[in-house]
Write a structure and sequence with these properties.
The chain has 449 residues and is an alpha/beta fold. The chain folds into 3 domains: 38 residues, no CATH class; 201 residues, P-loop containing nucleotide triphosphate hydrolases (Rossmann fold, 3-Layer(aba) Sandwich), CATH 3.40.50.300; 170 residues, Ribosomal Protein S5, domain 2 (2-Layer Sandwich). The protein is built from 10 helices and 21 strands. Strand 15, helix 7 and strand 16 form a beta-alpha-beta unit. Helix 4 runs parallel beside helix 5. The longest helix has 18 residues. The model has no long low-confidence stretch (mean pLDDT 87).
Length: 449
C-alpha cells in the first residue's frame, strides 16, 4: 500500500493533510513541509508469544543508594532533594538574564573537588565570556573544562570520553541533532537533543544540567516540551530589577516538589538567604502609608511576608482602569466587583492599581483580604497599622474563606513582632500572644478598618 503524503510544520510538529502557507497551530509562515507518512501496513503487528521472563518482581529489586553531590548551599540542596543524584537530567528554566548561568557556575564551584573534571558546554557564549563570569564569582577552577559545541552528538561523545563529575549544557535552544532535519531551537530539535542527553546521562551515570530559556508564556521552548523527559525541573524566578530570586521545583523524581529556595543577586553572584522572611521585612517601609497592607503567603512549605500596595484615583476619561503588578488581574476585577456589590463601595468611577512590593508574583488567593483592605485604605486615604497582618480569601458572596496552613502564618507573624492578625473566622485553638481578629464577611473588615 502506498504511503500517504502529509505535511508537517517544522516549528511545532503539527500535521496537515494538505499544504498551506501558514501553520494553523502556531501561526508561523513558511514552515510546513511535505513528508511521506508511514504506510498503514506498518501499524499491523503480528501476534507473538509473550515471554513471561520479562516480568519483574519488585520484591527482588535491591534499591541502590547513590551518594548525592552536595553543593553545601542549603537553599539549593533542598531543591534537589538533598543533593544532585548521579545520572539525573536536570532542567533549570528562567527568563534571559535572570541568573541561570551564574547559578550553574556556583554549583560547579561548590561541587569541584579532587581530580575528576567538570564539563561546561555552551553554544551561545565564548570561553572568554564564561571566564569573565567566573572571575566575577571569585571562582578559581582547577578541573573545569569548556566545550564550545552545538552538535548534540559531539557533546555526547565528549561526555562519554571525559566522564565528568557533572556536565552543564547552556542552553538547550542552541543545540541541534543531525538526526532532526529542522533548525536548532524548534520543538523537534529540542526533543531530539534532550532524548540523546537523557540516554548519555543514564548510560554514563553523569548528572547533566540543562539550561532552558522560557517564552513570554513561561514555558520552556514551547508547550511543556522537556518536562516529561527530564528528572528534575526547576525555575529561577524574580524581577531582574530586584535582588531576590526564587528557585522553585516543579518536578523532582528524587525528592519533594514543595520546596523553594531564596537567593539574592549580588556583585559576587547569587547568595543564599537563610532567613528570607526577615530579609523581606527589612524592605517594608515601617511608617504607615494609605493603601499599604502587610500579608503572608506560602511558597511550598515556607511562609513569606509581602506588602500589598493599592492606589485608587478618580477615572479621568473612559472606563475605569484595573492594573496589577505581581497579582492576577482577573482576581482584581473580581475583588472590585465584590466590594461594589457586597460592601456598597462605588468603584465604578475609580482607577485601581495594585502592586506586590519586591517584584514577586503571588497566585495564592490567601492575600485577597489584604488586597481588598489596601483598596479600602487607599480609597478612604486612611493608613493601616504596620503591626497588623491581614490574611484571608474572599468569595463572590463577600464571605471570608479559610486559608490553608493558617497556624504557620500566625506563628510567623508572632515571631516577627506583629501585634494583631485579621483572619478568617475558624477554630484556632493554639495558644498565642498575638491578638486574633476573626471576621466572616468583607463588610466586617470595612467597619473594622
Amino acid at each position: 500500500m502506498n504511503a500517504k503524503t502529509i505535511y508537517i510544520c517544522e516549528n511545532c510538529d503539527a500535521q496537515f493533510p494538505k499544504w498551506s502557507g501558514r501553520c494553523l497551530q502556531c501561526g508561523a509562515w513558511g514552515t510546513i513541509k511535505e513528508s511521506a507518512g508511514q504506510s498503514e501496513d506498518k501499524h499491523k503487528v503480528s501476534v507473538q508469544k509473550f515471554d513471561a521472563g520479562k516480568l519483574i518482581d519488585f520484591n527482588n529489586i535491591a534499591i541502590e543508594n547513590f551518594p548525592r553531590l552536595k553543593t553545601d548551599l542549603v537553599e539549593i540542596d533542598q531543591i534537589f532533594g538533598g543533593g544532585i543524584v548521579p545520572g539525573s537530567l536536570i532542567l533549570i528554566g528562567g527568563e534571559p538574564g535572570i541568573g541561570k548561568s551564574t547559578l550553574v557556575l556556583q554549583i560547579l564551584k561548590q561541587i569541584e573537588a579532587g581530580d575528576i573534571p567538570l564539563l561546561y558546554v555552551s553554544g551561545e557564549e565564548s570561553a572568554a565570556q564564561i571566564k569573565l563570569r567566573i572571575e566575577r564569582l571569585n571562582y578559581k577552577p582547577k578541573n573545569l573544562k569548556f566545550l564550545s559545541e552545538t552538535n548534540v552528538e559531539q557533546v555526547c561523545a565528549a561526555i562519554r570520553e571525559l566522564k565528568p563529575k557533572i556536565a552543564v549544557i547552556d542552553s538547550i535552544q542552541t543545540i541541534y541533532s543531525s538526526d532532526a532535519p529542522s533548525e536548532a531551537g524548534n520543538v523537534a530539535q529540542i526533543r531530539a537533543c534532550t532524548v540523546k542527553l537523557l540516554e548519555i546521562a543514564k548510560s554514563t551515570n553523569v548528572p547533566l544540567i540543562i539550561i532552558g530559556h522560557v517564552t513570554k508564556d513561561g514555558a520552556v521552548a514551547g508547550p511543556k516540551t522537556l518536562e516529561h523527559l527530564v528528572d528534575v525541573v526547576t525555575y529561577l524566578e524574580g524581577d531582574r530589577l530586584h535582588g531576590f530570586r526564587i528557585l522553585r521545583s516543579s518536578k523532582n523524581r528524587f525528592g519533594s516538589t514543595n520546596e523553594v529556595g531564596v537567593l539574592e543577586m549580588t556583585a559576587a553572584g547569587l547568595m543564599e538567604v537563610k532567613d528570607p522572611t526577615k530579609a523581606f521585612l527589612q524592605e517594608i517601609i515601617q511608617s504607615p502609608v494609605p493603601g499599604s497592607v502587610i500579608t503572608c503567603f506560602l511558597e511550598g512549605r515556607r511562609a513569606f511576608l509581602a506588602e500589598v500596595q493599592a492606589l485608587v484615583t478618580p477615572t479621568i476619561f473612559g472606563y475605569p482602569q484595573r492594573k496589577t503588578s505581581g497579582y492576577d488581574l482577573n482576581r482584581l476585577q473580581m475583588l472590585s466587583a465584590v466590594l461594589f456589590k457586597r460592601a456598597n463601595m462605588n468603584l465604578n468611577n475609580q482607577d485601581i492599581h495594585l502592586n506586590i512590593v519586591g517584584g514577586f508574583k503571588i497566585n495564592e488567593p490567601a492575600i485577597d483580604l489584604a488586597a481588598a483592605a489596601a483598596i479600602i485604605s487607599a480609597l478612604r486615604n486612611k493608613s493601616i497599622s504596620r503591626d497588623m497582618m491581614i490574611i484571608g480569601e474572599i468569595g463572590l458572596g463577600g464571605e471570608v474563606r479559610p486559608v490553608p496552613n493558617l497556624e504557620k502564618r500566625i506563628f510567623e507573624a508572632e515571631k516577627l513582632g506583629f501585634k494583631s492578625v485579621i483572619m478568617p473566622h475558624s477554630k484556632f485553638n493554639k495558644k498565642t500572644q498575638i491578638q486574633l481578629i476573626p471576621i466572616k464577611t468583607v463588610s466586617e473588615m470595612l467597619n473594622l478598618l
